[in-house]
Amino acid sequence: MSALNEVTSKTEKESGYNSATFGTKDNEVRAAAFCAAYLKPNDCVSCVKKTITLLQEKCSNHKEAASWRVTCMVRYGKPTPNDYELWFVAHEVSADKSKDVPGLGRTVPDLASMLMKKVYSPRGPSTVRGYAYDDMHYGTSMDPRTVYMAMQCTPYILPRDCNACLGRVSGDLQSCCKGAMAAAVLTPNCYIRYAHADFRG
Fold it and tell me: Residue ranges of the Gnk2-homologous domain (predicted)?
């Protein structure tokens, strides 16, 4: 698919978010690749290429598809600029459970709420709009623990839609992944991810 090939070429030149269209009007196809802001450029390219290969193998007969690999997303279909929708939601949940489930259960929503205030904050530590990363401690002095979390929206959706998307995935995270040591909720427009180790590399 030419749109996917063009997205790959663009990602090799500039990581982050890239899109391409192919065809005319009724037959137009738009492809987009989106990497987590904490990912290094080479890792972004590698992730996008692997994800495109997966889509070509699994979804060759589909007119619209999306695939997440935790650190990057590739989607294709009819062009939908500024279209906020949640037709695709994926959950990645660690089988390992925290020894302090109640403590983690309080910390995850608190950290998510804190990050949502930073996503578009001009005073935030990130230079990438629509992205926030931080950590929060919980547990006891005898058994201290730290949760690391990232959340991000694709750059083509409006801030209000970003906030709505992040609110949705934050809620999903609490309902799907209670007590998990690591988890992520992924959609075409935003994601949230946490772990007990700094995953930025």
Answer: 1-81, 86-199
110 within domain boundaries? yes
Question: Are 115 and 72 part of one and the same domain?
Answer: no
Q: Are the C-beta atoms of residues 151 and 186 closer than 8 Å to each other? A: no
Q: CA 119, 110, 104, 198: dihedral to nearest 10 degrees? A: 30
Domain boundary residue, one of 77, 109, 129: 77
Write out the residue range of the structural domain in which residue 48 sits: 2-77
Instruction: For the chain, 201 residues long, give each residue's pLDDT as a single digit of tens.
Output: 578 888 888 888 877 888 888 877 777 888 889 999 999 999 999 999 999 999 989 888 888 888 888 899 998 887 664 454 556 788 999 999 999 999 999 999 999 999 999 998 765 555 577 999 999 999 988 999 999 999 999 888 889 999 999 999 999 998 999 999 999 999 888 999 999 999 987
Q: Is residue 100 a part of any domain in this protein? A: yes
Q: Model-level pTM?
A: 0.87
What is the Cα–Cα distance from 201 to 36, expressed in whole angstroms? 12
Is residue 190 located within the same domain as residue 137?
yes
